[in-house]
User: What shape does this take?
Amino acid sequence: MRAFWTLVHRYAGLLMAGFLFISGVTGAIISWDHELDDVLNPHLMEARTQGPAQASLALARQVEARYPDVRVSYIPLHAEKGESIALGISPRVDPATKKLAEPGFNQVFVDPVSGAELGKREWGAVWPITKETFVSFLYRLHYTLHIPEMWGIDRWGIWLLGGIAIIWTLDCFVGFYLTLPVRRRNGNSAARAVASDDIAGDKPVPAGKSWWQRWQPAWKVRWNGGSNKLNFDLHRAFSLWTWALLFILAFTAFSLNLYNEVFAPVMKTFSQVTPTPFDTRPMADKHHPIEPRLGYAEVIERASNEAINRKWAEPAGGVFYSQEFGIYGVSFFTPGNDHGTGGVGTAALYYDGADGRLLGDRQPWKGTAADIFLQAQFPLHSGRILGLPGRILISFMGVVVAMLSVTGVIIWWRKRASRVTVAQKRQRGVLVAE
Assistant: This one.
């Protein structure tokens, strides 16, 4: 049985290694996506004009006047001192082609005081990679691999990494099992089993040791034991010490990438999942977006009044319009807290873009058991559930995941080389005998 699970771990690891290396490295970096973006792009992020800020809706109208082929789809409602306003952009339908325009950007940065445009960029662009798009390139690489749209489907990379995450989640248990000491049958056979199973060449375990004493070496790194033993110990010991975090990263990667396809349907078998307006309304055709009949100002007013009735303390902090679903969303947060407490997101109200009906809401850390568990997936994966210490921890874990991928491949390569050498020696021995 142990030999079977060793093969499973070996080939599952080889299958995952390249993907996990990319995800680990990119994950370690994008834990600091906002900070890195600020460092690389001060010309976009900083606003130097002194004075009172203009209303965000007025700034949005100015952008739409400059670019008639776009709609401002996200508007931050409060400007922070010294910082720009980043407006989200969606294309409108080109009257000539009857298809969505291709403006070449989906974000515009403006000075909230003067209204001057500081720059624009395509968030998540694959090419060219510039300092303006570098962080978003890594962010999308982390969970999509930038695999392009094929046959009208643009989720191939998301599905692929979701499948890898499922294998990773299951392999966490296989790898843990393989670190456990072999059950002793008799002194000599047990020693031979342990020695043969340890690819780094451990000495046989002395008879008379307890189960825990026989497992202790798996948690240690022999820093002066040579490159083979060091590589093996780094792989085994770091996997054990960080096992719980590795499992959380694997499971949440699966839940986030395959949320609609697998995770949410499975969760519905255990507890009621409260559907969002986006779950109950079909998506419009890409080139036939839904035009709103209400403007941002009216939606914000309705949402603010509703929030007062609900005794929500936070002000309206941002508003968006989804032209694929015909839905407005108003988020409530204080400036600088758009990730919400614990990174779980902010409270929000959703309105129909045609008639202004209240369609639903989102309240962090509230709802059914399934709702709360679903909300926790991104904060757990990003480490934001623990604030700054959590982000530091997740950044460290990204390096660990990359290291485990490399050491695992090295272990396989050295064992393979050893088996080839033994086979060649045996073949030469047979030829000499003949």
Remarks:
- Residues 44-130 form one domain.
- The CA atoms of residues 13 and 232 lie 14 Å apart.
- The mean pLDDT is 87.
